[in-house]
């Protein structure tokens, strides 16, 4: 009985330790991601974690804001940016080990559902009783830079400058329209699709040539604590499973082959 009891005690001690050891040896990848990718990345994350036994921790925000956090020493293995400018900012600090372009997006003008005006050219809003327009803050998110590009391209930035309400990101700008706090907003087409277009009117008239290219960039961070797993996750973004999720959520992959590596 004494021998049996001893074996039982040893098993109780060993098995929990073994479980802990297995968990502690699982890889972990820290990802900083543009908030416009949140729904996509959450779906990809679940599949990758299951398939590769890798834990993924993701922080979502505007790309400029995330880039500054990484440059200030925040722990990150991968940066998924909604544009090249935040990547360039990190590159200037020698923090970029690799760049992979995996998707693109486009901009649309949105209004509240009771917006009764027909607009064929964005310059026509100058003649309408528009009180407030929302765009993402260019200091926080690339979509704000693209939106400003559009307003400057059509020579209406100065006209509406005092009426612009800056949002933290494109989704917040879209919510401002839905809540009636602003008349118009310039947002990503994908956010309209993901958040749903109820209570808004989509006015798809923004020329893609009116702003710099909207390219989503997977950036490997120099000094990553888990470069092998980070590289695997970036490769996973180019697999058929991830491509299907991106396309289902409205992202464009047509430039992926041309811009896949730099």
Oligomeric state of the chains in view: single chain
**Structural class, please?**
alpha/beta
Helix content: 40-55%
The whole-angstrom Rg is 23 Å
CATH topology name of the largest domain: D-Maltodextrin-Binding Protein, domain 2
Whole-number tally of structural domains: 2
Strand content: 15-25%
Shape: elongated
Task: List the strand order in the largest sheet.
Answer: 2-1-3-10-4
Return the CATH architecture of the largest domain. 3-Layer(aba) Sandwich
Uncertain residue segments: 7-25, 257-262
What's the β-strand tally?
10
Write the layout of secondary structure elements.
Layout: H1 2-24, E1 27-34, H2 38-52, E2 54-61, H3 63-71, E3 78-81, H4 85-91, E4 96-104, E5 107-112, E6 133-136, H5 142-153, H6 157-160, E7 164-167, H7 170-179, E8 184-188, H8 189-195, E9 200-203, E10 215-221, H9 227-237, H10 240-248, H11 256-259
Helix pairs in contact: 3-4
Description:
By secondary structure, the protein is an alpha/beta fold. It has 2 domains: 26-104 and 214-259, D-Maltodextrin-Binding Protein, domain 2 (3-Layer(aba) Sandwich); 107-210, D-Maltodextrin-Binding Protein, domain 2 (3-Layer(aba) Sandwich), CATH 3.40.190.10. 42% of the residues lie in helices and 23% in strands. The protein is built from 11 helices and 10 strands. The chain has helices spanning 2-24, 38-52, 63-71, 85-91, 142-153, 157-160, 170-179, 189-195, 227-237, 240-248, 256-259, and strands spanning 27-34, 54-61, 78-81, 96-104, 107-112, 133-136, 164-167, 184-188, 200-203, 215-221. The strands form 2 sheets. A 5-stranded mixed β-sheet has the order 2-1-3-10-4. Helix 2 (38-52) links the parallel strand 1 and strand 2 (54-61). Helix 3 packs parallel to helix 4 (85-91). The longest helix is centred in the N-terminal third of the chain and has 23 residues, at 2-24. It is elongated and about 55 Å long. The chain starts with a helix and ends with a helix. The model is unreliable at 7-25 and 257-262 (pLDDT under 50).
């Amino acid at each position: 009985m004494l021998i049996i009891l001893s074996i039982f005690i040893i098993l109780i001690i060993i098995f929990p330790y073994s479980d802990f050891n297995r968990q502690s040896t699982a890889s972990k990848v820290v990802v900083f991601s543009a908030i416009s990718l949140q729904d996509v990345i959450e779906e990809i994350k679940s599949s990758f974690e299951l398939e590769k036994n890798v834990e993924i921790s993701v922080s979502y925000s505007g790309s400029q804001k995330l880039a500054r956090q990484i440059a200030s020493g925040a722990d990150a293995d991968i940066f998924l940016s909604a544009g090249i400018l935040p990547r360039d900012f990190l590159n200037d600090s020698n923090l970029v080990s690799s760049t992979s372009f995996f998707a693109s997006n486009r901009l649309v003008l949105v209004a509240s559902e009771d917006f009764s005006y027909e607009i064929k050219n964005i310059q026509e809003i100058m003649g309408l009783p528009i009180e407030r327009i929302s765009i993402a803050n260019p200091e926080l998110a690339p979509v704000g830079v693209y939106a400003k590009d559009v307003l400057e391209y059509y020579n209406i930035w100065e006209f509406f400058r005092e009426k612009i309400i800056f949002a933290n990101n494109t989704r917040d700008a879209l919510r401002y329209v839905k809540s009636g706090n602003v008349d118009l907003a310039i947002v990503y087409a994908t956010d309209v699709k993901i958040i749903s277009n109820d209570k808004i009117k989509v006015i798809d008239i923004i020329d893609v040539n009116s702003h710099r290219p909207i390219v989503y960039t997977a950036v490997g961070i120099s000094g990553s604590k888990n470069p092998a797993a980070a590289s695997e996750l970036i490769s996973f973004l180019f697999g058929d499973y991830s491509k299907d999720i991106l396309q289902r959520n409205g992202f464009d992959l047509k430039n992926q082959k041309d811009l896949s590596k730099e």
